[in-house]
Amino acid sequence: MALSIGDTIPPFDLPGDGGTPVRSADLAGRPFVVYFYPKDDTSGCTKEAISFSCLADAFAEAKVPVIGVSPDSAKSHDKFRAKHDLKVRLAADESHAMLEAWGVWAEKSMYGRKYMGVERTTVLVGADGKVARIWPKVKVEGHAEEVLAAVKAL
Hints:
Pfam families: AhpC-TSA. The structure is a single chain. The protein is α/β, with parallel strands linked by helices. It has helices at 24-27, 43-54, 56-61, 74-84, 97-101, 143-152, and strands at 13-14, 22-23, 32-36, 66-70, 89-92, 105-110, 113-118, 121-125, 131-135.
């Protein structure tokens, strides 16, 4: 079931890049951004991660952490961050527990073949732990800038 604006987010506790866990409890009381992406080091996902990284200072200035979540391992995230000098945190959801709870693990189709995967989605969570804004089926171009504008409007 996909989240809606105003919903309380499901809690999460995931392995993060660099061995540091990423937990909803640690983010409580402040807004944060979670962007869900399908796979480390693929063209669209790399562009999205670099876009958020380019704006990392502006998000930090607004005191809003940005976390990328995919089903890849924390080890894969470490390589991805190092290769592209990424400035955003990455969290590994290999079990798909968060992806499913947040409603972004969905049936997809490519070349007529159906499969389960991550629907590229971004969620802005308010300081109250509720969904403030959702961007479903994200198109990467200009997306990080749009999210930053929404953060500044909070």
